[in-house]
Amino acid sequence: MQSRFWSTVSTHAVLLAYSVIALYPVLLTIINSFKDRLAIFGSPFAFPSPDTFTLDGYQTLGSSAHFELYFLNSFVVTASSLVLILIVSSMAAFALAEYKFRFNLLTALYLSIGIMVPIRLGTVGILRLTVDLHLVNTLWGLILIYTAQGIPLAVFILTTFMRQVPKDLKDAARIDGASEYRIYLLILPLVRPALGSVLAISMLPIWNDLWFPLILAPGEATKTLILGAQTFLGEFVNDYNAVLAALTLAILPPVFLYMIFARQLIRGITAGAVK
After folding, report:
1. Architecture of domain 65-274
2. Coil, strand or helix: which one is 53?
3. Could you count the other beta carbons within 10 Å of the beta carbon of residue 51?
4. How far apart are CA 21 and CA 33, in angstroms?
């Protein structure tokens, strides 16, 4: 009994230490966004004092005519990508979980490769394709790429949950004359934890991505929030207050989403790991 107690204490201590290490850079960014430039470099680990407290970074963002556009672009790209990921992945997962066709296993393995192979390895090919389709410097180019990036993992998670739905419920719906699309719509509320897990997992790499916006959509009208923050850093201008303020505001949406779907995220990861 005593050994189990100390094992639990040590596990929680390790998790707590890891949480502190992971959250410390985030808290440091938020704290320094409220300090003047001298305090940022002179005492970066100190909290703002009455002498060092300033809102210059946030005022710079408010006076910038482009910051709201950057934030809107990030929101549109992220929201549209998540909607497409949920629609396409849930339909594919329903087909893989419900129907036994010839290439069922092969399709699942093919999608698993998309989880293991980073999409950035195909950047050159993606760039050529977007140029041919005239999608460079468009939000649609980013939306389609992020959708393709998020589908493999989403299908894997949703398939696991959909296979847990009792078959008797689906057979009863078929006996009542429900179509396959109707059955698919009836199953979706039963896998809400998986849908929330997919939302939380897929949002972070899309919202925080700098790679594809920098390569495919560097135009002023299509810059995302993370890319737009780079405009305050350059050869002649280094407005660190504005950069830290922009990064602080960029942190808020993922944090709120995680707080809402934290339980679903944990259930989705656990179910996927067990299966």
Report:
1. Orthogonal Bundle (1.10)
2. strand
3. 10
4. 19
